[in-house]
Amino acid sequence: MSNEGVINKADGEQKTSSHRTEGKNSNDDDFMDKFNQEMSSRMEDIAGNLRQSFESQLDNLQSKLAERSQGDMGVRQTTVLKVNKIFREVGQELDSDWEKVFEYLMQPFGQKVYDEAVFRLRRTSEVTRPYKALIEWKEAAGKDHFHIVNLSNALKSCRPELAVLVDNILNCDDNEDLFKLTRSISKKKTMEGRREPSKQLTNQIDNRIVLKLSKLIAADWRKVGECLGLDNELLDDLSITSSSQPEPHQKAFQMLTDWRLENGEKATKDKLVTCLKKGNFSKLAKELDGIKSSTKIGPDGEKIKKLTKAEKEEIKLRSEADKLRRSGEEYRNLLSRLEKWIEKEKESIFQCLRNIDTEECGMVSSQEFKSAMFDLNCPANKVETHLFAMLLDEDCSGNLKYNQLENGLSFCRNLEEFFPEDVVRPSLVLSKKKSTRWDGDWLKRDYVRYARVHFKHATFSEKRDHHTHFIQLVHSHATVSYLLQLVKERIALESNRLALFTDDSLTIEAQLPPASTLEECGISGGSYDKPQDVLLYYDYVVEFTGCPILNSDHYFA
Predict the structure, then answer these.
(1) What residues does 457 pair with on adjacent strands?
(2) Phi and psi at residue 534, in whole multiples of 5°?
(3) How confident is the model at residue 246 (pLDDT cuts 50, 70, 90)?
(4) 519 or 448: which carries more pLDDT confidence?
(5) For 450-540, CATH number?
(6) Using an 8 Å Cβ cutoff, are 88 and 131 in contact?
(7) pLDDT tens digit sequence for 145-156
(8) Residues 220, 174 contacting (CB under 8 angstroms)
(9) Which CATH architecture has domain 309-417?
(10) What are the beta bridge partners of residue 399?
(11) Which terminal residue of the chain, N or C, has fewer Cβ atoms less than 10 Å from its own Cβ?
């Protein structure tokens, strides 16, 4: 074989091998592409599963933490409610036994902490001192050493009834029952260890007097304290403890407060004036006499309780409603207006009141009734609505029987027939208004009774309809002379010789005295809607005073 043939053969083998290599490389690339695609899809699936698993576990963990935190918050809130209730109830009833209980509770903290706490407590009011003592114990114990059970153990020795109360509150699991739980302790003021209230409240010194007097004393507070008999040690303590309060009147205020606490009810205004005069503080004593106490005293010598804003509003509404109740014509117009409205809106009224009356007892409270009337656009203002509620509240219990409205306001009109005896008596009231015509009623009264008088001329009494017969509605306290004036005006009489009779016999026994009232003649009257019917006869004698012929006796001489 020639060299050329060998070379050609070698070139052919080389090309063949290169083709094989190229085919193998293309197959490897396709395999790697498929492998990479499959791996990426599997990795995405794994990442999605891991993400889903992580989110589900995270949600479960968050829900468990939320439940645990809510449970801890509920327990913490319940504990706070119980502690607050125990402190409030025990603080109100502990009185002078607070020192024994406080000493027992403060034993773990040492004598020094106890003395400092007592020193602070003695500068507080006697009323709030037991409660503040419990607060001092709680702050001294802290979160780690504060156990409310210790208070129950301390109370067992001196006040076992309060210990039972503390145990009941601690064992109460329901918050609603916790709020309903009250003290089972007698409220009598004669309880052993409790002070009786002072009867000389007008001579007591309140904070207002102490504040004004401390400003007058100012720099002389130590000399005044010595005049009042305070110990020098106490005055020295005031000088040290008052270093953060450099103002002299503040030291004077602390000194007077300590004097009041030491003397109790004996710390009267008269005693303070006497001590000041003995210490050559006559000017201060005179100033003290001019300072009035802010405590209001009743006629029985007891302190007058200050009314709240709601109580003042209630009293004002009741006063205006009573005034409207006695107004007569205005009150009757109100009843007529309300009766028409009730008849028109009866279904909506009862539907609204039944929705409020969840117990279906036929009763709602006064405030609920007034709110319902405002919601239903009742044609009445605030005072008229309050009067409406008062009429429904028969026993003044605050609960209204709305079933009475089934028959309108007839029950209100019937109330006018049962006025008490003391309001029937007439009373003289001076009126500023000048009447153009006298109506015979100078005796103004709160509750008026009425009589429907049927006037008949005695001569024509047998005739049923006669122009001299008429009917007139009058007050039962109107006088007979007023009725005679009505007769004269009605039939245009000129005669003054006129009389009224109870029957047509026209005897002296049947004649009514002109100066008497109808009530004095046995006619008591009734309500405006149901007046008492009375039949009276009148007769007169014609006087010939106006005839010129008869008056001229010249022709008959």
Answers:
(1) 538
(2) -135, 135
(3) low
(4) 519
(5) 3.10.20.90
(6) yes
(7) 788 888 888 888
(8) no
(9) Orthogonal Bundle (1.10)
(10) 365
(11) C
